[in-house]
Automatic annotation (TrEMBL):
Protein's name in the database: HTH cro/C1-type domain-containing protein
Origin superkingdom: Bacteria
Signal peptide interval: none
Gene3D superfamilies from the UniProt entry: lambda repressor-like DNA-binding domains
GO MF, any single term: DNA binding
InterPro entries (UniProt xref): Cro/C1-type_HTH, Lambda_DNA-bd_dom_sf
Organism: Volucribacter amazonae
Domain HTH cro/C1-type: 46-74
């Protein structure tokens, strides 16, 4: 059985064990009450229940917390390992950002992100050109 179908079966079973009707409407209402990201619609919930897709890592974690289960009760060990590796990489990137970038650098980057698309493209091209020139002259 493929992982998506297996996830669907496990999700329906856990919902029923917790006293919830395994329908898209119930899942949408209860999930969105607990998830801090963008609300998920009925269509997406129905796709989860039909075994067409597996939710994102963050949504899987919300489901596991809500249903009070380990992630392994929803998805395969392999997927759980990938989720853990992804979190470790993200933690590492966050640590790098906070330790290597000064407050001024972080503020500058936020300003950059708020520029219109064309201006961001121009700034990006200038930075890449300067990087190439620096790298060529350094060696």
């Amino acid at each position: 059985m493929d992982e998506k179908k297996n996830f669907s079966i496990k999700l329906k079973d856990l919902l029923q064990k917790r006293g919830y009707e395994p329908t898209a409407a119930t899942l949408e209402r209860e999930f969105n009450l607990r998830h801090y990201g963008k609300p998920i619609g009925l269509h997406a919930m129905a796709r989860w229940l039909r075994g067409e897709v597996i939710p994102t890592n963050e949504r899987l974690k919300t489901l596991a917390d809500w249903l009070d289960v380990d992630l392994r009760e929803l998805v395969s060990d392999e997927r759980v390992q990938r989720i853990n590796l992804s979190e470790q990489r993200q933690d590492s990137e966050d640590t790098f950002w906070h330790t290597q970038a000064s407050y001024d650098d972080q503020r500058l980057f936020k300003i950059f992100l708020n520029l219109p698309r064309e201006q961001r493209k121009t700034v990006r091209e200038v930075i890449i050109a300067m990087h190439k020139a620096y790298r060529t002259n350094k060696y």
